[in-house]
Structure formats: C-alpha cells, structure tokens
Amino acid sequence: MDMDSTVVKVWFKNQRAKGRRFKCDTQQKQVHQQSLQDQEQHQQICKLQLQELHQFQFQQTLKSDVSRLLYSNTCHHLEFNTSSSLKSNSSSYINSKISLHLYSNICCHLKPNTSHQF
C-alpha cells in the first residue's frame, strides 16, 4: 500500500509540476506577446512624435525664413542700395527712392539738422 500511495503522490507531484510549467510557459508567451504589442505601440508613438517634431521644425524654419526675408528687405531699403540692377527696374528704384525719402524724413525728425532730398 505504501508503494501505491508513493506512486500516487509522485504522479500528483508530477502533474502539479507540469501544471506550473505550463502556466509559466503560457505567462511567458503572454508577456512576450504583450511586450511585442508594447514595442509596436511605442514605435507608433515615436513615429507620431517624430512627425510632429518635423512639422514643428518646418514651421520654425518658415518663421525664421520669413523673419530673415523681412529683415533683409528692411535692410535693403534702409541701406538704399541703388545699384545698376536696381536702377534698371524702375519701380524698385522708385520704391527705393520713396523709402529713402521716408527714411530721411524720419531722420530729420530724429535729428533736426539732417537735410534730405527727393
């Protein structure tokens, strides 16, 4: 009888061990699958963030380009560059002369001794 009870105990012990192993393997697979899903979600989030970053950088580049263009145009008018290429385009030359006149008037108000000509 001891022999039979020992066999039964060993059989139950083995079954419990198999059950634990099966449960452990199943959990590992679930964790692995979950980590793959988490990795995929993480990659998608990273892609979206990267797209938003590129869009933000593009907008900042546009803003800085516009600022640079405005500054260069302003400087162009304030320096009154009347080169031959500018004189060949009469409307630009006239605009430049008008800007010169306006700038001169402003300077006259700031410095009353400054004279100006149109």
UniProtKB/TrEMBL annotation:
Q: Name one GO cellular component term.
A: nucleus
InterPro entries, alphabetically? Answer: HD, Homeodomain-like_sf
Q: Which PROSITE patterns match?
A: HOMEOBOX_2 (PS50071)
Report the locations given in the UniProt record.
Nucleus
Q: Which residues bind DNA?
A: 3-23
Per UniProt, which keywords does this protein have?
Answer: DNA-binding, Homeobox, Nucleus
Mention one GO molecular function: DNA binding
Annotated membrane-spanning segments are: none
Superkingdom classification of source: Eukaryota
From the Swiss-Prot or TrEMBL record, give the protein name: Uncharacterized protein
Q: Which organism is it from?
A: Cricetulus griseus
Q: What is the lineage of its organism?
A: Eukaryota, Metazoa, Chordata, Craniata, Vertebrata
